[in-house]
Amino acid sequence: MLVGFRTTQALYVAAKLGIADHLVSGPLDSNELARRVRVHPRALFRVMRALAALGVFTQDSSGRFGLTAIGELLRTDSHESLRYSAIAIGEEQYRAAGELFHTVRTGETAFNHLYGKGHFEYLAEHPEASKIFNAYMSEGLRRYGNRMESYDFKDRHFVVDVGGGRGDLIASVLRANPALEGILYDLPQGVAEAADYLESQGVANRCQIMTGSAFDSIPAGGDAYVMSRVLHDWPDEKAAVLLSNCRKAIAKGGTLLIRENVLPEDDTPSMGKQLDLTMLYMLGGAERTEAEWRNLLQASGFSLTRILKTKSPFDIIEAAPSEL
């Protein structure tokens, strides 16, 4: 546990340099790799050697490095790629985690303390970081599965994906439900790649792209609203604003679907409890238990109707608008 930071940074270096992409055609020695990615040969060798010892790469007797099944996950073109996850975690997240003590001591979000602004403000000002973050989110959705696409959308006609980024989730939902139409709604930097992506998925003709802040308003009229890993970014008072705006927008008899962690109340191991620390130092948000979700929804004009457990770390919380 104590030295996990070394592995995080070694994986980050390999991902940032695109090492796995250079090894697709076969093993290379560190001198050739260093020449291709323009870094210090001996320093790269030592990082590669450490990662080979962890099973990320192979190392033969002549000092050449190759890909393992784990290393394949750092390839940009792998369907299971975690390359951008490694970069995103190794950059802003890693630095903010180093200031966790500051957050615990003061309550101030570590990212804000380091950068002088919130994470989403930072992304708006740094297009490359925003592109990496969007790819990171897409990798997570692809790796852990959408599960929303298997939800029964019968009697639903129009779905609004709030904070849906480039559109991975809504595209999969629309593909699985050919009669559905929808809106992808996010900040401008969130949907920067959405038009091309939706076109590539064959759903552009059924999905409008709208930009704006969900803290101001949410597009009205949908009979199904989806929020995937959005509410955990915010503390209760701000999450309640998002939910209240959704309550104003949703059609009578509509359904709200929230894709998030539902934390166990006891000491049961849970990936969500670790992710909760990320929310603490990166965004000031939180993962929540069933009781906390129920209370948050009730305070915002919704009733929790059921929780659909999935095999992924993220469950589907179904809610219905309460009578006003």
Considering the chains and any ligands shown, give keywords for the structure.
single chain; 324 residues; alpha/beta; Arc Repressor Mutant, subunit A; Rossmann fold; 2 domains; seven-stranded mixed sheet; three-stranded antiparallel sheet; 14 helices; globular
What is the typical, i.e. mean, pLDDT? 95
Tally of distinct domains:
2
Percent in strands? 15-25%
Order of helices and strands: HHEHHEEHHHHHEHEHEEHEEHEHEE
The SS-based structural class is alpha/beta
Number of helices: 14
Largest sheet: 7 strands, mixed
How would you concisely characterize the structure shown here?
The chain is an alpha/beta fold and about 325 residues long. The chain is built from 14 helices and 12 strands.
Your description of this structure?
The protein has 324 residues and is of the alpha/beta class. It folds into two domains: 4-74, Winged helix-like DNA-binding domain superfamily/Winged helix DNA-binding domain (Arc Repressor Mutant, subunit A); 143-263 and 282-321, 3-Layer(aba) Sandwich (Rossmann fold). 44% of the residues lie in helices and 17% in strands. The chain contains 14 helices and twelve strands. It has a seven-stranded mixed beta sheet with strand order 6-5-4-7-8-12-11, with helices on both faces. Strands 1-3-2 form a three-stranded antiparallel beta sheet. α8 crosses α9 (127-144). The model has no long low-confidence stretch (mean pLDDT 95).
